[in-house]
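#struct-queue
[09:14] JT: dropping the first one here, sequence first, then the C-alpha cells:
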Amino acid sequence: MFYFNHTIFMSYLNMKKQLSAIQKLYAVSAITTLLLISITILFGFQVKNQIPQMKEYDTYEKLWNEVDTLEAQGLTKTALVKTNAIYTLAKKSDNSPQIVKSLIYQVKYKQILEEGDLEKALSVFEAEIGASKFPEKNILQSAAAELYWSYYQQNRWRFSDRTHTLNFNQKDISTWDLRKLIERVTALYTESLTNSDSLQQLPVDLFSSILIKGNTPESLRPTLYDFLAHRALDYFMNDEAYITQPSYKFNITGEKVFAPTKEFINLRFETRDTASGKLLALKILQDLMQFHIRDTAPDALIDVELKRFQFLKNNSIHDLKDSLYLNALLELETAHIRDSASASVSYAIAQFYFDRSLDYAPPLINDHQWDKKHSLEYCDKVITQFPATHAAVNCKALKQLIEAKSFLLSVEQINTPKQPFRGLIEYRNVDQLFLRIIKDPDSLSIDILHTEDEEKKYERYLRQPILQQWSQTLVDLHDFQQHGVEIKMPALPIGRYIILGSSNEDFSISGGGIIKAGTTISNISYISKRNKNHYSFYVIDRESGKPLPSAKARILSQLYESSARNYQLKETGRYTADENGYLEVAASASNQNFRVEFIDGEDELIADDYFYLFPQEKNAEKIIRTIFFTDRAIFRPGQTIYYKGIMIHSKGAPNELMTKFSTTVELYDVNGQKIQSQNLITNDYGSFTGSFTAPSNVLNGEMTIRNNYGSTTISVEEYKRPRFEVLFD
C-alpha cells in the first residue's frame, strides 16, 4: 500500500507543540522528505506530458539547495523568505511542481515562526486547491481532507460541546462546529475522485519514487485513482466519521449488499441521507469494482471485495450478517480458486473461523467448538498451495497461534492438613502434564519481598528438593479449544508448598513452559474486622470453627529499606489471643500496611491479604449544619413559600440541637441573586420557621433557600394544577 509522506508532516505538527524554539528548528529537517511528496508526484506527472527545460531545473535545484542550507543553519525566517521568492518565480513560469513544493515549504516554516498551526496551513491549502488543476488538485484535495480530520482529532475536546453555529465566518475553521467540519472533509474526499476516468489512466508506478510503500503489493493499487479512492474509503469506513447523523440516517440492511460483484455493482440505494459516510463508502466500492471487474489479474478486485465484506460485517444491521459474510467469502474464494489472489480470501475465512471460535464457552455456549480446526485447515491450504503470498505469511502466524500450547493450574490458597484436595487444570493442545510439589522457599525468608525476575524465580524453585511428583493424563479433543478438569492432589502435612507443572518431563524452562500454584496447609483460620483505630482478629480452627486460645500473631509491616532500595517485610509487633481467640492490633506509624502471621504450636498461617490501618485523629472542630424543609417542591410566582429549618452541631460526638441561635435565611433566584432575607432565632428545639414570596418579575426556574450552614432548592414555574373528573357508570 502507498501513503502520502505528509503523514510525517502531521506527526511534526503534533510534536511541534511540545518543542522549544530551538528544538523546532531541528524538527524541521525531520519532515523534509515528507514535504517533497506532493511535489514529486506532480513532477512525475509532468515527466509524462512535458519535459522541463534542463536550465530551469538547474535553477530551481540551486535555489532549493540554498533553502536547505539556511534551514540546516537554523535560519528559518531567511529560509522562508527564500521560499517565498521561489514561489513567486514558479507562479510566473506556471511550474506546478515547484508551486506546490514551495507551498508546502511555506507551511512548514510558518508552523515554526507563527501561531495558528493547522488553521493557517489549511487556509493556504484551500487557496491553492482553488488555483490548481488536474491531477494536482485531486491530490491536494485528498491531502487537505486528511489535514482537516487531523485538526478535529487534535481538537476533539473543543468540538465535543460545540453546538451548531450559524451566520459565522466560514473561512475561519476555529469557529466551525463538528457538522461543518465533517461536511468539508466529506466534500474534499468526494471531489478528489472527480475526473475518475483520467485518474484511472495514471499508473501508480509513475509515482513510486515519492510514495511510502507499505506491506500491500502495488498490484492492489495500480492507478492514482485506486490510491485516492482507498484513502477516501478509509475515512468513510471510519466509525468516528458517523458522529453527526440525522434522525433518518442511512442503515445498511438486507442481504443484497453481500451479493457477488456483478449484482452488487448494479444495486441502487434509496435514502434521504445522501451525505451518509456509509452510503458514500458503498458507492466508492461500486466504482472501484466496476473499474476492476474486467482486469486480467483479479488481485485489485479481490482486495476491494474483501474490504467491502469486512465493512458490511461491521456495519450491517442484518441479524444474519455473520453468515452472509462467511457465505460471501466462500463464493469469492470459489470464483478465483485457481488464482494466487484467492489466498487472501482463504485467509479471511480462516480469520473469521478463528474469531468466532472465541465465542465457545461451555457449558453456556457450546457452538463453534470446531471453528479453530476449520481455521487451521484453511491456513494449511494457503501455506501449501500459495506459499509465496503475503496471505501465507499471515496464515503461518495464525496457525502458530492456534497450535500454541497453554495450561494453568489453580488450587485453594489454604487446604486442610493430611487430606487430599482438589486442583483445577485448564489446558489447550496438551495431552499430558507433569507435576511436582516442593516446599515454598519464600516461607524461609518471609522478611524479604522478592523482586527477582520470573526465570530466576523458577530456576530457584527447580533446585528445591522434590517432595512428590507424578504425571496427569489429559483428554485432548484436538479442537484447539481450552478445556478444564479437576484432579486429586495428594494429602500434605502442615506447611507452605508450591506445585509446579510442565508439559515436559524434565521441566525445562525453554521447552514447554512451567506453571506454578501455591497453597498453605493449615488448621488455622481467622476472621478480621477493621475498626476506627484498630483491627480485630478472631483466630479459629479451620474445621470446627472453635477459637484457638493463646494463638500468636506476628505483624509484618511493609517498610522501605533505603540501603537496599526496596520494600521489605519487617516484624513490628507480636500479639497473643485471649481465651476466645480474640486479639487487637492498634494503629501505629509502623503498621499502616501489614500482613499477619498466625502461629498455633507448629502450625503457621501467613495471611495473603494486606491490611491497611491509619491512626485517625479526633475532630475537635465544631461542625454546624442546617436541615431545611419546605411545604412543597414547586411554586407559582407570587405564592407564599413556607419553610422550616433545624440546626444541629457536632464535635466528634452525637449531634446536639442549636437552641437560641441567631441566623439569617436568604432566598436566591436562578442567577444566584439575593431576592429576600430574614433574621431568625432558633427555639428550644433548635428549629426556626419563616416564609418568602415567590418572585414574579424574574426568570423562573430552580431557586435556593439557605443560611451559612445549609441550603435547599425549590422550583418556581408557571403551571396549572391539573383538573379531572371521574365518572362511574
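[09:21] JT: and here's the second one, same format:
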Amino acid sequence: MKNSGRVGGLHREKVLARSALGFLAAFLLVTLTFSGAPMGAFAGPLQASGSPSPSGSGGPVTTAVKFLNPSPAYNPHLFPEEGEGVIVEDPKISDKFDGTDNAYHIVVGITNPPDNLVAEASIRYEGENDVTIGELSPVLGRPNAYELFWDIPDGLPSGSATMFVRLFSQTATGFQEVANDSVAVDVQHVNDPPSEAEETAALTWPTQNGEIGFYKPRGGTWRATVEGFTSAQALRYQLFYSTTPLGQAPKYTFCTGQSTPGAASQSRKAFTTQCTLAGQDVPTAITAMGVVAEDIDLLHQGRIETLSMDSADVHVVRPYVQAPEQMTISLIPIPSPVDNNNLESAGRARTIADRCLSYLAEVKDHLGRPVTGANIDVHAEGPDDQLRFGDDDVSAARAPGTYKVPDKGGHSTENGANCSNQPNGQALGSQGDHNVPGGDDIKHRESLGGTGVSGSAGVGQWEFYLYSQTPGFTNLTAWVDDESITDVKEQRPVDSDTLDPGEPVATARAQWYSDAPTLEFVPLGDTAAAGTCNEFLLKARAGTAAIPGVNVDLHAQGPDDGLDFCDVAGGTPRRAPDEGEHDGEDGGESTEQEPSPKSQHTEGETNDEGNMVVGVVSPTTGDTNLTAWIDGEVGFDDDEQGAAADEPVAAATMSWANSSGDATVTFLNPSPYGGANTISKKTDADATYHIVVRVDAPSLVPGVEL
C-alpha cells in the first residue's frame, strides 16, 4: 500500500482503468486460506487468500526474513530537473526481457531459518485479497537465502501493490508462520503500452551465491568486475552492494559512478564493468550485489525531465580477495589505431619498421576472472637501443597519464615516441632505460593506476605502444609487480619495479619488417605417383628475413574427395581449423562445406626459419590446386582467406600420375636459358660435357635414355 507523500507508477491513473478486468479475474479465483498454513500448500498460483492482512509472526523471534529484491534499499527514485528535489518511488516489478529471460527475480535473506522451512511470496493490490506468487526455493549452497523467478501472469493487474513473503515451519500440528516481510511495489507488464513497460537488468557475474574477487591497488580502493545485461531500451544502469547480514533489512550502497551498457544486440545490452566500493567498505563484509536499470520516463520539449530507476536484480555473493601470487598475466597484441600499411591481418605482433604496435597486458585471478587495479611493469628489448615505448596525444588510452616511468630498479629516463601521427617516432612521453653494455638496452614502463584503471583499456587490462625504426625483433616481458596483504584493511606494500621470484610473468615477441611480408610455395608445381605423400615447403618472408611463428592456413582441392594431407619427415605440426564453417575430419584437417571435390583445410605455424613443411596425397590421378595464406597471430586468426593485400597468398599445383608415360622430362643442361645451346669438349674440370635433365615424377621413371 502506498504511503502518503510517495509517488507510485508514472501512469497509475491509466493503470486503474486498465486493471478493472484484472481485478475481476482475481476475484473469481478467490479461495480461503486455512489458518496458519501457506496458501501454496492448498492452492496453485493466482489463488487469493481470504484474509486481507498477514497474520502475526507466531514463531520464534530469532527467525526473520527481509526482501533483498525488490527492496526500497537500492533507492529507486527519479532524477528531476535541478532544484525540484528527489521524488521517491516504489521498487519496479517488470517482466520485460532482461537479457536472460522475462521472469522477475525475487530474493530474500533469512536469519536463523528453521528446519522444514517453506517460504511463500504473494502480492496484494489496495483493497483486494492476496494473490499467491509461489513458493521460493533455497539458493544452492546458501540455506539463509531463498529465491523465485516469477513469470508474471498476463491477467495480473499493473500498478501499485504490496508484495509479501511469509516463512512457515512444519510442526506436528501443521504449518506455523514464523516470520514475514512486505514491500510496496509498482508492477509493470510487457503487455502494457511500450511507454509503461519498465526496463530490466540481470546479473550474470557474480552468479547467484557465486564467488566474486576484489582487488585494491596501493593507495586505491577495492574493486571487482561485474557482468550482466539490461533490456534493449535501458539508458544506463547502477551497481550496488550490501554489507548487511542476510535476514536484516539491507542497506545498499551504490558502486562508484553510473554506467552505460553496450549497444543493443538480440534485444538486450551487455555490460562488463567495475564495482568500486565506497569509503572504508571491505570485500569480506559484502553479502549481496545487484544492478538496477535506468531509463528516461518523461520528455519535455526534447529535454530529459525524469530519469528513473526501473527493475533490479540481486544476488547473494561469496567475496574473496584476489592474491597476486595466484594471478596470471598475458600479453595480447591488438590492432593498432595507426595505419599499419594494410598489414594488420599478417600479424598483430608485426608491422613495418618506423610504425607502432599495440599490446594489452591482461591479468586474471585463479578463477580466470579479470583483476582491476593490478600494477604492471613491462620490459622491452631489441632490435637496438633506439626502441621506444609509444604515446598517443589523441587517444586517452595511451596518453602519458596512463603510465609512469619506474622510480626504482636503477635506470635513466629518456624520450618515448609519438604513435598518433605519420611518420611516427617524434619524441613524446618518457620511459626508463636500463643500460646493457654490449647488448640492446632494456626499456621500462609501468602502469599508473593499474589494470582497468588507467586509460580506456578494458577491465583487467592495461594498454601500451611500441615503436622501432629498425627491422628486427623485440622481446617483451611483463609482470604483476604487487605484493600480497594479509588483512583487508592493510595498505599494500610498495612495488619494487623488478621481477621478483613468484610474481606472475608473461613474455612475447614482436617483429618489425623491412619489407611487406610474402608467402611462397617450393616447388610451385610437382608430379608424383598417385598414393604417395608429396612434400611442399612454404616460406614466409619479409624481404629476406624469416617470419617465424606466424599462423598459415592451407587449402588443397582435387582431383576428388579422396585427397588428404599427410605427414612427411620433418613436417610441421598441423591441426584442423577451429574457426569458420568446416566439416570435421580428424585432428589434423577438416573439409570446407562446398560441392565435391571439397577443399581440405589445415593450419600450423612457421618454424624459427619462417618455414612450414606439409605433405599431400591423392589415391587417384589428376591435379590438385594448393592455396596458402598468412592468417595472422596464433589465437587471433579466423581461418578464412582475406584480401591478398591483407593476407599474403601463395599457390601451387600438384599432378598425380600412374605410369612413366604420364611423366615429363626437361633439359636443365644444355638449356636455352643464358645463351646458345653450345656443347664444347674444351677442358674445364675435365674433358667431359655435363648433361642434366629433370623428371617431374621420379618415382615413376626408373631411368632416362639420351
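[09:30] RK: nice, looked through the second one.
[09:31] RK: Helices lie at 12-18, 20-28.
[09:31] JT: good to know. The CA atoms of residues 537 and 613 lie 5 Å apart.
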